[in-house]
Write a structure and sequence with these properties.
Layout: H1 2-12, H2 17-35, H3 46-68, H4 74-89, H5 112-124, H6 129-154, H7 156-167, H8 172-176, H9 182-201, H10 207-223, H11 226-241, H12 250-270, H13 283-290, H14 293-311, H15 313-326, H16 332-357, H17 363-389, H18 392-399
Helix pairs in contact: 1-2, 1-5, 3-6, 3-7, 4-5, 6-7, 6-9, 6-17, 7-17, 9-10, 9-16, 9-17, 10-11, 10-12, 11-16, 14-17, 16-17
Length: about 400
């Protein structure tokens, strides 16, 4: 919502700090009124303390990486922060960032992240610390969201294990300091999937759950182009799950997704350039690429290599042992959420593979540059899916510590 309001203000030429503050306060007041906010009674728990300490240590490590590489990854400088600079300093010519002269900066990319960075610069000034802190906060929120979702769906022990697996991911620290849009996108993917799964678990679920799930899915499309694939995959999965569960309210889901998707379409139709992946190409050329067996082999090898590179063998080994030792039977109320997340992730991965098959770029370069980042986007949702396959009772029995029996005293 902040990015939407800031885009409207930039378009109208209202770029002062005080105007931004007034709009933010009005939005906060409107949200509190609509959601009927009440104070939350916080309760301390061992799981929350463990995860909180892990998140703090991970955030500190990300900040140390930022100090070593203050400008972030290359794409942060060449794409996301460049667009934020246009929005912050461009004035009435901010739309020049869509020029063909800057084709290498992907003028077709959505603007959620640049708009939020530019908004931070309105308050704090033009400083490279702002986008870094934003990404670190998103990473911390992503870990806490995973903990909260797994805790509600599968219990505290599995929530702790899933969150520690995320924080222990090999490239997690680098991703948090990269200033890229992959973690914000992962946050929206996980939030949309998790909210829909919670709605399927509730016998009398209010429409707000489905509205929120749709809105987060639309926000994913407003973050990166890959979000469009997720929107299509999740909507198709919802229609499939509706065959076994009457709780799916797909119309409410679409209503929630309408505003961000409409905003993306307006920006793309009026300003943004064309995607380099779907430039004017002959259909016969794309079909020839799709029939090339060698491309399938290259994509498979790159996917396997990305899993090892991003996740690391320790976490992969732990997940494999957990699936072997604690996989449980599916309860009736878990069948629909499991089907939803499995089908959504399958369709998204299938879509990624299809894009690679018809990619106009050199396939080896394209896979090397992007495969690991696509996995980072999906990894929190994959951990949620793994947690849904495990039996909480078996996991609890496996990690429970039993006090050794006292030896009988000799008489």
């Amino acid at each position: 919502m902040c990015s939407c309001s800031h885009l409207l203000m930039v378009g109208l030429g209202l770029t002062g700090m005080w105007m931004s503050a007034i709009v933010d306060l009005m939005m906060c007041a409107a949200c509190l009124t609509v959601w009927r906010w009440r104070p939350i009674a916080w309760r301390w728990s061992i799981g929350g303390i463990v995860v909180g300490v892990g998140v703090l240590l991970s955030s500190a490590a990300m900040f140390q990486v930022h100090r070593a590489v203050p400008l972030g990854a290359w794409d942060a400088m060449a794409i996301w922060n460049l667009k934020a600079t246009f929005l912050y300093r461009g004035g009435p010519r901010w739309s020049a960032m869509f020029s063909d002269v800057l084709a290498s900066s992907h003028p077709d990319y959505p603007l959620l992240l640049p708009l939020n960075v530019a908004r931070l610069w309105r308050y704090a000034g033009y400083d490279w610390l702002a986008p870094a802190l934003l990404n670190i906060v998103v990473a911390a929120g992503l870990a806490m969201l995973l903990y909260s979702l797994v805790r509600q769906l599968r219990g505290t022990i599995l929530a702790i294990l899933a969150t520690l697996a995320l924080l222990g991911t090999r490239q997690w620290t680098d991703a948090g300091a990269s200033q890229l849009a992959d973690l914000p996108l992962g946050l929206y993917l996980l939030g949309s999937l998790g909210t829909a799964m919670l709605a399927l678990r509730k016998s009398a679920c209010p429409a707000g759950f489905w509205l929120l799930s749709g809105f987060l899915a639309g926000a994913a499309a407003w973050t990166k182009n890959e979000g469009w694939l997720f929107v299509i995959a999740l909507f198709a999965a919802l229609l499939a799950v509706r065959l076994i569960s009457p709780r799916v309210r797909w119309r409410s889901w679409l209503a929630g997704a309408a505003l961000p998707l409409l905003l993306v379409l307006i920006v793309k139709a009026s300003c943004a350039g064309r995607s380099d992946l779907f430039a004017a190409r002959a259909l016969s050329q794309m079909l020839d690429q799709a029939m090339d067996v060698q491309r399938y082999a290259m994509i498979g090898r790159a996917a396997a290599g990305a899993v090892v590179l991003v996740v690391g063998w320790p976490v992969l080994t732990g997940i494999a042992l957990a699936l072997l030792g604690a996989a449980g039977t599916t309860r009736t109320r878990d069948r629909a959420p499991q089907m939803l997340i499995a089908l959504t992730l399958f369709l998204v991965i299938l879509g990624y593979g299809a894009v690679y098959l018809i990619s106009p770029h050199d396939l080896a370069w394209h896979l090397h540059a992007s495969a690991h980042r696509l996995l980072l986007q999906l990894w929190p949702s994959v951990l949620l899916a793994v947690a849904m396959l495990l039996s909480p009772s078996r996991v609890k029995a496996a990690v429970r510590w039993k006090r050794p029996a006292r030896p009988v005293a000799a008489r």
